[in-house]
Amino acid sequence: MDIKIEHLNLNDDEQIHSLVKWENDPELYHLLVPIMDKDKSEPIKTFESLKKTFVEKPDYASSIFIILDGKKPVGNFSIQLDPEHLMNKVEGTSWLGLTIGEKAYWGKGVAKIAMDYFEAESKRRGASRVELGTFEFNERAYSFYKKIGYVEIGRLDKFTYWNGKYWDDIRMEKIL
Predict the structure, then answer these.
(1) Which of 92, 94, 102, 119 gets the most CB atoms within 10 Å of its CB?
(2) CB 48 within 8 A of CB 42
């Protein structure tokens, strides 16, 4: 593996197509997006709609990083500083959104490489703390974050619907 991380390139259609593929993958969707209403279907993202969002919201686009194996996109993460949805509203907090979209890369150390980069970039941007959320049923992610030093700070009850029931969002933090 030749893992590299770079800012999202809006001129690289393969990167945007990969993001669309991962967000629409039924095996990934429930891991990425909270499903608030079990009876409401979620909109399908398209290449055009996602690219339009990035063009209209350049600050959002600049917060997205692509994880590459050589030139092949295998995942992404985003950095938000002091977003509204923090559980602990501490100034200088970086919020993580991480996806390893290509399942062949799960368990291969790619997430650890991405997290090291994310934490260093968060510090560079002035953050002294990271907060993240992982759904209660995602035991694999929860174990991973604990292993690399994140601690549970609380839960948002019945935050997402999946597999016939509502699940909590587990909030975790790490001081950088």
Answers:
(1) 94
(2) no
Pairing, β 64-69 against β 3-7: antiparallel
| Helical ranges in 8-109 per DSSP H | 13-24, 29-32, 47-56, 58-61
Cα 20 from Cα 147, distance rounded (Å): 30
Picking from 153, 161, 73, the residue whose alpha carbon sits closest to that of residue 110 is: 73
Rounded to an integer, what distance in angstroms lies between the CA atom of residue 74 and that of residue 3? 9
Q: Could you tell me the end-to-end alpha-carbon distance of the chain, in angstroms, rounded to an integer?
A: 28
Backbone torsions φ then ψ of 5, nearest 5 degrees: -130, 135
Which token pair is 27? 């095996």
Q: Residue 72: CB partners within 8 Å, gap ≥ 6?
A: 102
The DSSP bridge pattern shows strands 129-135 and 165-175 to be antiparallel
Q: What gap in Å lies between CA 42 and CA 124, rounded to an integer?
A: 35
**Total-model pTM:** 0.89
